[in-house]
């Protein structure tokens, strides 16, 4: 999945990026509000993790602009305020969910997974394709009930395919979903991954 | 309600005491009016007696006319006594009357060539009003001093006094009642909008600090404006507090989230250099958070001191130098140079030493924090007429 993290605190931003990169997602980290706003005009993401207090442009403004452009990308807000009215305001602005700082990665992961599932019109946590079964919570794949070992990137690739059933995806689309701006994958790498997934 | 009770108490007080006062004043007025008119009659009679004493051929002739006592007979229930004395010799009338004339407090009234003295005394076991009138009779070289004593019992006089008092009291009561009713009506008119205001205020939600919008007469509109102004200030304070709280939450919770997230990462990281970098980030974050908490606590301390501490005289220059010296080491650790560039003359201001120290420390710390490495922070005290300015300038670039 392709994620955008908009967070002005360097340590927190880096931590989130490290975490999701390790899980095999493509991730971009932006510090300034206006920068995030212009990136979102040109690039589609599967999920946006948004802080509210940002330099140059506030998080709520970015969210507003996103929704004005009819962009329905799920947005998870990181907020320091835990008052009910603040949360209501955020949800009214178009946020899909929020998390109060500080948070546990387990909770962040679960909320992100839930948002992605809902966005892709599939609220189930597991999928079956004939003999193949994918458990999105445990990130595991099994064939005829027997678990197959997948590398992280390979699993994410399978995940992307499973979320776009009945569609042919171009290499470029796959790259867009799998990698951040900082990574420079070749189309050959994608072919290799696809070949490995097919083999398994 | 306490206010209503106080008002009731006061109105009761006014009615009681002004009523008592009225009675007293009416009584005194009646007494003095009766005294004055009856004294006139007494004087008229005494005058007629004294005028009818003559010296004819060196013999004193007393010829008392009936008319002399006619005035006194206007009060039918009273008795009158008289005595005429010439050169201390009893001439006519009641012989012991003059001996009853023992004035404690006499009132003298001079009327023409006569000098009259009045006083209240007792004669034949009855309270009487005395008059003493003197005259000198002269014929040739002969001079005779004649004194007339006249006394009258007080019954009619007292009746008249009572009569006047009662009438005056009746009149005063009527006027008093009318005035009181008018006052009550006026007070009711004035208090009515206050009651309405009270109702509006008591029916409000405790969080509703919007201006009160009720039509008020001129007398109350000033009060209403003050209440609205006060509520606006309260709202501003609450807004500021809310903003401050959310800002504080952000400043504390964000690095905390970073620390938690990055330490979770470090726990799972197998790559040693990567883990090292993550732990370094955690430590940096901790330090930054510690500074933030220090600043917030300082702010709370200052707010507390501003409310509770009396101000004292402080040498500002000396204080700036002291704070700068304390910060030199911290500055050097961050590769920033700190320079106090004078002037040497100092100035004294009125303030709280600890609060000023904390504020100066905060300014200098911030200047150091936002200076580039190898930069110089210059601290100057500019003393202007009637005001002092502490100027702290980070000078960018190499020293």
UniProtKB/TrEMBL annotation, chain B:
Name the chemical reaction catalysed here: ATP + protein L-histidine = ADP + protein N-phospho-L-histidine
What is the protein's major site of localization? membrane
Q: Where in the cell is it found?
A: Membrane
Q: What is its EC number?
A: 2.7.13.3
Q: Which GO terms describe its molecular function?
A: kinase activity
What are the alphabetically sorted keywords of the record? Kinase, Membrane, Phosphoprotein, Transferase, Transmembrane, Transmembrane helix, Two-component regulatory system
InterPro entries assigned to the protein according to its UniProt record, in alphabetical order:
2CSK_N, HAMP_dom, HATPase_C_sf, His_kinase_dom, HisK_dim/P_dom, HisK_dim/P_sf, TCS_sensor_his_kinase
Q: Name one Pfam family in it.
A: HAMP
The record lists the membrane-crossing segments as 168-191
- Which residues are in the HAMP domain? 188-239
Highest taxon of source:
Bacteria
Q: Which CDD domains match?
A: HAMP (cd06225), HisKA (cd00082)
Q: SUPFAM superfamilies from the xrefs?
A: ATPase domain of HSP90 chaperone/DNA topoisomerase II/histidine kinase (SSF55874), Homodimeric domain of signal transducing histidine kinase (SSF47384)
Q: Which residues form the Histidine kinase domain?
A: 247-381
Q: What is this protein called?
A: histidine kinase
| Source organism per UniProt | Marinomonas phaeophyticola
